[in-house]
Amino acid sequence: MSKPTLAVVGATGAVGTVMLDILSSRPDVWGEIRLIASPRSAGKVLRVRGEDVVVQALSPEVFDGVDVAMFDVPDEVSAEWAPIAAARGAVVVDNSGAFRMDPDVPLVVPECNAEAARNRPKGIIANPNCTTLSMMAAMGALHRQYGLRELVVASYQAVSGAGAAGPKRLYDELEAVAGDRTLGTVAGDVRKAVPDLADSPFPAPMVLNVVPWAGSLKDDGWSSEELKVRNESRKILGIPDLKVSATCVRVPVVTTHSLAVHATFAEPVTVEGARAVLDKAPTVVVLDDPAQGVFPTPADVVGTDPTYVGRIRQALDFPNTLELFICGDNLRKGAALNTAEIAELVAAELTG
Amino acid sequence: MSKPTLAVVGATGAVGTVMLDILSSRPDVWGEIRLIASPRSAGKVLRVRGEDVVVQALSPEVFDGVDVAMFDVPDEVSAEWAPIAAARGAVVVDNSGAFRMDPDVPLVVPECNAEAARNRPKGIIANPNCTTLSMMAAMGALHRQYGLRELVVASYQAVSGAGAAGPKRLYDELEAVAGDRTLGTVAGDVRKAVPDLADSPFPAPMVLNVVPWAGSLKDDGWSSEELKVRNESRKILGIPDLKVSATCVRVPVVTTHSLAVHATFAEPVTVEGARAVLDKAPTVVVLDDPAQGVFPTPADVVGTDPTYVGRIRQALDFPNTLELFICGDNLRKGAALNTAEIAELVAAELTG
User: Record-annotated residues binding phosphate (chains A, B) (predicted)?
Assistant: First the structure.
């Protein structure tokens, strides 16, 4: 077949915007690219691959002739529309939570389980949650070498993980507090200084603060985000009995999630060995020379594609265990880039 | 004896300033209070207990007649001067790292090991590191009930943990970035926007960032801060074989350290049981109702005395294990308050 036709559903959102940038910079495997959004955004003109493209309203017909459809829309929109697109013949790559744990939907990180993308009985492939994704390339490489058994994770999650409203809110709060050098010293002073929290996507001030909450409340006090890290890591890595505990915390960073990871393996592991494994992983960059001030930080890696790993230490008291600090751009590898990579796997399969 | 004489060494520093506030608000057990600092700060007038007190320069003679001397100065200053004060008859309560692991110096958190303060062969009692201290009241209470065996900790540490220069730097950086709503989206853009990092106490931008580094580099890639969490927790709790791994990360918060704690016990533990134990601990406050948006955040608890615990969950895959999110003011319970509490134990012993 000639170059496949791609649809980008949710083209005007936070991830959609990064997706157009990514589609414009990667090797061009696509024929037509259709941009699709809610009727409210239809008619907007967006640039992709250097060309203006008019955004079309979501409808069943808009998928006619589409080979691959990327979805970055809320769960309920994906739940309704991904099957419609699939029924019209498109292979859907969905970045919502609607299908990730469906046993008939593969959950794919190309570095970990590219082959799973070929087995898609519903015509749908799911893209993992951004927090899980931020560590999968690195953890997949270590798992193949040492056999991953346990993960204890604490996250430092960027506000853009909550959508475009997240950065807007953080910038608003930054402007509200800048210049007052007394704030952050008395309980509640930051809460009073920022705009009304009723208008925030976050349950507490984000500026001069960290907030131990992301997602929605599930059983026994767990957040949806914390359970995603557990369930999605197990599915992607193919380790159904992987032991996982995560605590997810939002921090005043615009984009790029960080994770402090305590990882226990079946086999003995050394810092030198782990570093060699990670150095060989094509999409992983090791930044680990604290004597020279070298470790990954969100501000230094945002907007780039790799997964960055630093602070690699052998646990002193836990056998076969490494401590790591991992950073990944939650809009790129954590969302749009991984979606594009899955779509490219499908394109290669369709044209190959 | 009449009310004992107290010396505050390092009265003009970040912790010293909080100490004067604490001394002014707690039940007054002290006779004379002498304020002591480097010769550079001598002659300054500071207020404590509603009275002006002239700061005296550090000298051997200034300790004559002093019963208790609190030190909050750099390690090397404590190492030199605490023995001099002790030789002049003062009981030293030292908040530096100089003596914490000395087997002849007790390391005291009154909620955990008040009795240890009486056994001080060198006349010196050490106050723990602020990161360790932020969780000790809560972990001590849980240890007494369930028998603590393992701790995996990730920290979210405030900039004031680095001294008075930390908040100044963060406020400077906040002012430098406020109003630019593009920052934090391209690698290095924040680094370019903030004042010269050569003038910062931190190795990377703190605003719109998190930095996985605190303290100095020790063996095998560990930071001094991470090793303190391990060694000091073992000594305070009296568990020499406690398994500990910590990753210490600085976040853009002025004051109040937070810790994501994965704690494994000898005995089975439930959320309800742990909550009951923590509710009974006098200096611990449980803030844990995520359905109502209730969990501790630094901005909501800074400037207060308790240790706050929230997000209490039973680990799904690890037996006898709890996940917790703990906040504590690093200048109060994490430093000045605990020092004052130790000094009061000594005052009660001397006058009792």
Answer: 100
